[in-house]
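Narrative progress, year one. The postdoctoral researcher (J.K.) led the effort to move from monomer predictions toward full complexes, under supervision of the PI. The following entry was the first complex the group processed end to end, covering 681 residues in total.
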Amino acid sequence: MTGLYIHSVSAFIGEALADTDLLKEELHKYAQENFRRVNRFILLSLIGARECIHGHSIAADTAVYLTTEYGNLGDTVVVLDEIYAAHSLPKPFHFINTMSNTATFYLAQNLGTRGRNLTISSQYLSFERGLDLLMTDLTAGAEQSALIGGVDVASLPGAGGEERDTRGWRMVDGSGWFYVRPEHEGACGAFRENRSFRNEAACLKWIRERGESPVDVVAFGALIGGEEASRWREALRPIADFSYLDQYGYCGSAAACGIGMFVKHFPGKSLLHINRDPRGNYAVLEVEVF
Amino acid sequence: MQQGAFVTGKAMICAIGETPEQIVEAVRHRRIHLAHLSFPLAGLPYTRPYYLIMRNEADRPENRPDGYFTEILFSTAAGAIADAGLSDIELGKTHLFFGSTSMDVPVFEGNHRITSASVSDIFLRASNGYGKIASAVMERLGIGGGSYTFTTACTSSANAFLYAAAMIGQGRLERALVIGYDLFNNLGFYGFEGLKSLATSTYRPFDRQRDGLILGEACGAVVLEGRPRSAGDFRFLGGANLCDTYSVTSHDEEGTAVAETMNRALGQAGIAPGAIRAVKAHATGTENSDRTECAAMRLTFSGRVPPVTCVKPFIGHTVGACGVCELILFTQSLKAGFIPATPGFREKDEGCNLTPLTENEAVGEGIFMLNYFGFGGNCTTLILSNEGGRA
């Protein structure tokens, strides 16, 4: 994987079920516009992306890739209640906001960009799959710059508002974004590898074949358990672990947020992020911070 | 090195058939099946038309059993795989691209009929994220690659097709199964009525007397590979996706952004506008969308617009599924030797200033443009060819 340089980054972690007025205050740090008819998911998307490009002038054809596990579920709940509980037709903007790509629309509108615009998902590997699509567009010459992010709300309104995931992690809102370009000049880091593997054995084989390429830090996705993490450490012998789930909490886009945190806080280091989905497919991201 | 991406297998179920052959015959002879559905939950005293899958009584929305959603999905995906003749080894190296607007909302609405819990509560407790549906297909059918789920409103499966084809063309993937799926659900049916977008009787895109869109349900699946398996397999030449930031629900009626999408797709395909033999329009039948699209076609083709067809009057607006489903309907009709007419069209709208085909037109090989637009400003154009020299 070559030519995917990170020019700026953000990683917003918010308290679960925090008042949306607090999110609007956060957004006002980076954007002066008043946003009407936007929900929690859209606000999170705007906060992360606006923080990421704060101080940068971005090209009009900058592409936007939003990766998410659950998307705009809050409005889906509202609309289902309007139909099944209130026995009415849904309010137009509640219905429109059930479509998660409204978040990337508001983002593109706010930034004044008219490039490619996607909202995509892939169980536990959404961010890695989004990078696949971004690389496809860069290779095709369809674009020269892109914003790619992962956004998810902590827990769903009415679902009980559990504070902790069943695995013990604190539930949080998350919005992690990267402004990427093919040029090295001015970059703060780079995505060096984004590889997919059919199973653990194939992933391990690739890691062993990397030879002595040093890894400073390793981090693991949400489905990599303690025993498995030990096996990877043994194979990689990193200098340190970066347990972003323990440190910052969990949401569907924890990987994007965790990697964003790494780029912000680990200058001069490299990260190997190992992730897997429930079917046992693996994805490995290598990130270098300058 | 750039390679090709060819449609080597397809399967589809919709209101007018459950095989490509049935669907093409229905299109050729304009056999349309329109149901009329009411809004009992909102107590409204009227009905709206809808294109339902209706093979038998069990297909009625109120009769659909638990597992109906996956039965339609798995059987359609398996049909496309069988049509391409993929071996188990080939399936193991296949990647899945899935596009939908409603995702698994029909499942939660269906569960509501058999439990006392509220739909929203079922939804909140059972939702496993957008990617779960694609994972279920892969597990069931032994598909071994990665999965990509697109949720870009009505362009969802068109974008799924665009990226699958581009990745195969770049040699990143060997093969992909691309699925577009949207099944009837109250959220969409009541939601579009809440927008006052639903037509009252007949689907008439581009017509002066049109009064909105008519929803439909469908599942379509295509296999895309780097090499053709039969003569006449359609080849993806290029495509584009752009965001028109004019409005979240409508487009700039000047058609600038939509025309730019078409032009970028032509550029990616490496062809001039004059090489396009015919256009499958998105043609929702809503005033803004129709006028925008027609203005964009006039801009793109400098006033010399090739024959245009609108296929939604056959199967309805299948929202996120329309990318793959309209592609199958259109390309299978072309393979059968005709560009479909637009049923329901009677009177030209001066605001559109475009008359779509009103009779089936004989066609041989050619290069074709397929357009898709959606809420959130999403615009997608695909360019496909079945020309011997290119395929």
